UniProtKB/TrEMBL annotation:
PANTHER family in UniProt: XAA-PRO AMINOPEPTIDASE 3 (PTHR43226)
A GO biological-process term: proteolysis
Enzyme class name: hydrolase
CDD domains in the cross-refs: Prolidase
Annotated GO MF terms: manganese ion binding; metalloaminopeptidase activity
Chain ranges passing through the membrane: none
Species assigned in the record: Rhinolophus ferrumequinum
Signal peptide: 1-17
An annotated GO cellular component: mitochondrion
Gene that this sequence comes from: XPNPEP3
Alphabetical UniProt keywords: Hydrolase, Manganese, Metal-binding, Signal
Protein name stated in the entry: Xaa-Pro aminopeptidase
Length: 466
């Protein structure tokens, strides 16, 4: 017997009858504590890897590598718990969360970019196909966080699958992700009238919809109607981002894997450096080493900047020749199983530091180590940033670069050499959870970057020193 976690107790899984034009559903099941048996996953390729088709990547019960149906269900449970706290005192209202997937984007008329799912959508269900909708709906007569999760996904279409590859369909979506019900995308129109009801509070990011076409087709008119009702539309993005700030042990393991393979790629790229060398060669070497070790894609276009080109914080042309005696900065990372890394390193392209380069490199490294000692619960990225500026100001004086810097101008001088922040949150995205302020107290489970003076400072300081 498969047992499931409800809001208050364990109950046996019971498959319900089909509804809404024959959706595949299991509406009595709540928060699976065990995976759906492997035999229930269709014995065919889906729109993403499954334990049946990719046993080298996923164990039974996993939706994405390392993350189980249980983990995704508990995330949805936590979100509905937060909504319950947000709506206490509002009696007699239903709560419905709607999240849109990303669309497929095109670089030209019919040439698509590699698809990348909206991270908030992905965080709550793990489904990796475009043109999909996730709905979390409170249950009549039951208190939140009790709810049902529904996916609306593209219909299986042999003619399109011939060109674009297999789709999961409703049966594949429910078996893979463990949501309670799954429908074809067109069935969402039957849910819209219920969402218009005065008694229904809609949680939906109408100001920044992830999928413009789905918003136009299904949600735009709905949000206009809801804006005039007593239960208006409420944004959900910040609630999801707040949950994403704290990583679970499984998430941290995924991030450690991404960080380790990126570190190995950096080492191999350093070994491949020579003088002179083209930035494009180091770019290609870094990407190859990441992909060869299991990365899905690069997390962002890397910066491979020789000499004074490191002055440009987001230099991504990577098409110049790095000369003998110059330093090279590589700011790169990869994405592995939905989680990313972000590492920056600077080294002499010929393998030998000059005396000024070595002195200044060690100065920046010491600042970073001092900043790392501040990373503890209760402090914040803003606190670490202030300390970084203070440390840079001190180093400028010690090195004789800022002899005329007055104490009250130390921060201003430091910003000249380090015009960026000390770091940011890291997770499913490089600049993860962008709506979360850097002033938040750090908590166990948060992942941050600490990158003082990562680019402009070393070149300018070397130039001044010499």
């Amino acid at each position: 017997m498969l047992w499931l976690l409800s809001a208050t107790k364990l109950v046996p899984a019971i498959a319900s009858a089909r509804s809404l034009s024959g959706c595949v559903s299991c509406s009595q099941r709540r928060y699976s504590l065990q995976p759906i048996p492997e035999r229930r996953i269709p014995n065919r390729y889906l729109g993403q890897p499954s334990p049946f088709t990719h046993p080298h990547l996923l164990r039974p019960g996993e939706v994405t590598p390392g993350l189980s149906q249980v983990e995704y269900a508990l995330r949805r449970h936590k979100l509905m718990s937060v909504i319950h706290k947000e709506t206490q005192g509002q009696s007699g209202t239903d709560q419905t969360v709607v999240l849109l997937s990303n669309p497929t984007y095109y670089m030209s008329n019919d040439i698509p970019y590699t698809f990348h799912q909206d991270n908030n959508f992905l965080y709550l269900c793990g489904f990796q196909e475009p043109d999909s909708i996730l709905v979390l709906q409170s249950l009549p007569g039951k208190q939140l966080p009790a709810h049902k999760a529904m996916l609306f996904v593209p219909r299986r279409d042999p003619s399109r699958e011939l060109w674009d590859g297999p789709r999961s369909g409703a049966d594949g979506a429910i078996a893979l992700t463990g949501v309670d019900e799954a429908y074809t995308l067109e069935e969402f129109q039957h849910l819209v009238p219920k969402l218009k009801a005065e008694t229904n509070t809609l949680w939906y990011d109408w100001m920044r919809p992830a999928h413009a076409q789905l918003h136009s087709d299904y949600m735009q008119r709905l949000t206009e109607v809801k804006a005039k009702s007593k239960n208006k539309v409420r944004a959900v993005q910040q609630l999801v981002q707040h949950l994403r700030l704290i990583k679970s042990p499984a998430e941290i393991e995924r991030m450690q894997i991404a960080g380790k393979l990126t570190s190995q790629a950096f080492i191999e790229t350093m070994f491949a450096s020579k003088a002179p060398v083209e930035e494009s060669f180091l770019y290609a070497k870094f990407e190859f080493e990441c992909r060869a070790r299991g990365a899905d894609i690069l997390a962002y276009p890397p910066v491979v900047a020789g000499g004074n080109r490191s002055n440009t914080l987001h230099y991504v042309k990577n098409n110049q020749l790095i000369k003998d005696g110059e330093m090279v900065l590589l700011d790169g990372g990869c994405e592995s199983s939905c989680y990313v890394s972000d590492i920056t390193r600077t080294w002499p392209v010929n393998g030998r530091f000059t005396a000024p380069q070595a002195e200044l490199y060690e100065a920046v490294l010491e600042i970073q180590r001092d900043c790392l000692t501040l990373c503890s619960p209760g402090t914040s990225l803003e606190n670490i940033y202030s300390m970084m500026l203070s440390l840079i100001g001190q180093k400028l004086k010690e090195l004789g670069i800022g002899k005329n810097i007055r104490e009250n101008n130390a921060f201003k001088a430091a910003r000249k050499y380090c015009p960026h922040h000390v770091g940011h949150y890291l997770g499913m995205d490089v600049h993860d959870t962008p709506d979360m302020p850097r002033s938040l107290p750090l908590q166990p489970g948060m992942v941050i970057t600490v990158e003082p003076a990562k680019s402009k400072s070393l070149y300018l300081m070397c130039k001044t020193r010499v």
